[in-house]
């Protein structure tokens, strides 16, 4: 097949970009050719003889709103000019003013806006007003894009429900979970000293954007304050402008919370801790949660995190309310006080992750491409036959 993938970036160190990177790798391994319509792509992909890179330069207009719209217009124009060159056009959410065969829904602004934890208010100042308008515009654009795709691929059942709330028929959806590198993220020897972590305590790990209240580190810190003193927390994420070191000090946790800043070797950090805590207030399908499962860590998360749906009672603890610090404390204490229970959860988590590898994910996308392509050829055959008869 001749496949066109439209996205902003295709590279390994980006969430959505990594998903598309692995789809490209799977497509190339299967013998297909791939064109990338993007602003940036990993150099190792561009060296492949069956990869074509059509670069859409980022706009210099002020603000994400205008920049994304400019990118979408340029992508739409390119697709319309080259549509006949491809068997499959795969886009990601609203990224182009053009129809598509497959639209992967990684994040739905309508779901974020109505989830109950949306932090912005129209009348709370210019920044808030801009964010609200940006979200509302994206809601309209995403609805337009989903209605003009043959198949929508939500990355979780949670996202599928959010797409359906836009009035999109569920019969046009096929959920495909994101993947994880089960070889890279695997249990192994701890390296706590490398990350400045003490050797003895039961060590939790929180990883995410430390500037966003959506990730919910504040509830984790309040829960930790009520947990026994032998429970510590490693926090991985960029510290610049983060309010959480000050909050940790105010809660008397300065000696028990270890801020590592950005960590480039996340597999090694995950091998060095005892459990992963991720009570995000809103999440579509987090890669870091899947990585923790693959690393064999018992996971504490919440239902508002899309990845929670791949966790059962045997592979993790899923709480109902992301802001319930008392319930989170109880879950932490249960893991820290029962090594056998924590070990069983971790082993089950590793087995669950084996069904969510990048290879499995890519194969599911390619199978979907084949189905869509086969339907198009079948529908085109009667038209070609009629044209042949008319010519005779």
UniProtKB/TrEMBL annotation:
Residue stretches making up the Glycosyltransferase subfamily 4-like N-terminal domain: 14-182
CDD domains found in the cross-reference section: GT4_PimA-like
InterPro entries in UniProt: Glyco_trans_4-like_N
PANTHER family recorded: BLL3647 PROTEIN, GLYCOSYLTRANSFERASE
Protein name (Swiss-Prot/TrEMBL): Glycosyltransferase family 4 protein
Organism: Paraburkholderia sejongensis
């Amino acid at each position: 097949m001749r496949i066109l993938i439209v996205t902003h970036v295709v590279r390994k160190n980006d969430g959505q970009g990594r998903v598309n990177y692995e789809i490209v790798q799977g497509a190339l391994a299967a013998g297909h050719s791939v064109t990338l319509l993007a602003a940036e792509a990993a150099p190792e992909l561009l060296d492949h003889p069956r990869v074509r890179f059509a670069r859409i330069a980022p706009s210099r207009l002020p603000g994400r709103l205008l920049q994304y719209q400019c990118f979408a217009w340029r992508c739409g124009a390119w697709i319309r000019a080259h549509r006949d060159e491809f068997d499959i056009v795969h886009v990601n959410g609203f990224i182009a003013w053009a129809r598509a065969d497959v639209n992967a829904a990684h994040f739905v602004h309508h779901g974020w806006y109505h989830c109950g934890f949306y932090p912005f208010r129209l009348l709370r100042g210019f920044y808030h007003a801009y964010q609200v308008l940006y979200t509302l515009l994206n809601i309209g654009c995403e609805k337009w894009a989903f209605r003009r795709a043959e198949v929508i691929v939500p990355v979780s059942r949670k996202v599928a429900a959010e797409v359906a709330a836009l009035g999109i028929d569920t019969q046009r959806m096929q959920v495909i979970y994101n993947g994880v590198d089960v070889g890279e993220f695997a249990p192994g020897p701890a390296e706590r000293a490398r990350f400045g972590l003490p050797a003895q305590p039961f060590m939790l790990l929180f990883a995410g954007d430390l500037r966003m209240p959506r990730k919910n580190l504040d509830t984790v810190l309040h829960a930790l304050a009520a947990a026994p003193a032998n429970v510590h927390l490693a926090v991985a994420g960029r510290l610049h402008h983060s309010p959480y070191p000050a909050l940790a000090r105010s809660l008397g946790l300065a000696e028990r919370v270890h801020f590592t800043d950005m960590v480039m070797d996340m597999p090694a950090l995950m091998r060095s801790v005892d459990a992963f805590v991720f009570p995000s207030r809103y999440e579509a399908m987090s890669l870091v949660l899947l990585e923790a499962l693959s690393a064999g860590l018992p996971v504490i998360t919440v239902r508002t995190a899309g990845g929670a749906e791949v966790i059962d009672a045997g592979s993790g603890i899923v709480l109902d309310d992301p802001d319930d610090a008392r319930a989170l404390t109880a879950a932490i204490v249960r893991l820290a006080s029962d090594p056998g229970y924590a070990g069983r959860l971790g082993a089950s988590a590793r087995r669950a992750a084996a069904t969510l590898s990048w290879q499995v994910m890519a194969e599911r996308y390619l199978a979907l491409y084949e189905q869509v392509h086969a339907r198009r050829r079948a529908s085109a055959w009667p038209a070609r036959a009629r044209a042949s008869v008319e010519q005779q």
